[in-house]
Design goal:
Pirin family protein; seven-stranded antiparallel beta sheet; Pirin_N_dom; 22 strands; about 0% helix; RmlC_Cupin_sf; mainly beta
Length: about 240
């Protein structure tokens, strides 16, 4: 088994005034040669965006982009005819940038901060036709059990959003004292686990809010909640980049 620990305070941080951004992996002006990616996971940004502010129209290509709102109202626009599309914390948004997209992501509230995770996954197919999806995921469906959010187009799970990579993004909410066994897809995958909130034990390591652990070269692992906790799992092929 391989294991890496990323404590919340070890992340890169950028204060842009309107944007408070924490970077789990090298991004923009924050560079750490030891934190370039975790397998096919390239970016995990934990952003807080001021009211009525956001990312103006900008391009992407050949990247799978996943946005998970945690608080507030996200307004999305792009050149695929989505104009000020609303995405809220009960939903997840995915985009396949493929041959190229232009999009903007704005806080749709005039008085509430927007909090979200933005995740970039390196695709297994390049120059695909760009696409956009979003879906509601009920909070109750992850109480004590795994709720799958995103998988590959080749995966048979019909309830998840789809991207061009053999991944599994999922969430679970555990109450204090509850445990859960996570089983990996294959021995070629690894899992990046972030504590969204609360405190838990994973493979002998204590994770508190926004701490993360990356695990690979194992079949399964056990999580024990020390308090009520919310966890995000990003399971990816362990690509060598």
């Amino acid at each position: 088994m391989k294991k890496l620990i990323h404590k919340a305070q070890s992340r890169g941080f950028a204060d842009h005034g309107w944007l408070q951004a924490n970077h789990s992996f090298s991004f923009a002006n924050w560079y750490n040669p030891h934190r370039l990616h975790f397998g096919a996971l390239r970016v995990l940004n934990d952003d807080v965006i001021a009211p009525n502010m956001g990312f103006g129209t900008h391009p992407h290509d050949n990247m799978e982009i996943i946005t998970i709102p945690l608080q507030g109202i996200l307004k999305h626009s792009d050149n695929m005819n989505h104009n000020r599309q609303t995405v809220v914390p009960s939903e997840v948004q995915v985009m396949s940038a493929g041959t190229g997209i232009q999009h903007s992501e704005i806080n749709g509230s005039l008085n509430e901060h927007l909090k979200l995770f933005q995740i970039w996954i390196i695709p297994n197919k390049r120059n695909v036709t760009p696409s956009y999806q979003q879906k509601v995921f009920n909070e109750g469906d992850r109480k004590g059990r795994l709720q799958t959010l995103v998988t590959s187009y080749e995966d048979t799970d019909s309830e998840s959003l789809k991207i061009h990579q053999d991944v599994k993004l999922s969430r679970i909410d555990l109450v204090e004292g509850e445990s859960f066994n996570y089983v990996l897809k294959t021995e070629k995958h690894g899992v990046y686990v972030m504590s969204i909130s609360g405190k838990c034990e994973v493979e002998g390591e204590i994770l508190e809010t926004r701490d993360a652990i990356g695990l690979s070269e194992l079949d399964a692992f056990k999580i024990i909640s020390k308090t009520n906790c919310e966890l995000l799992f990003i399971e990816v092929p362990m690509l060598k980049i």
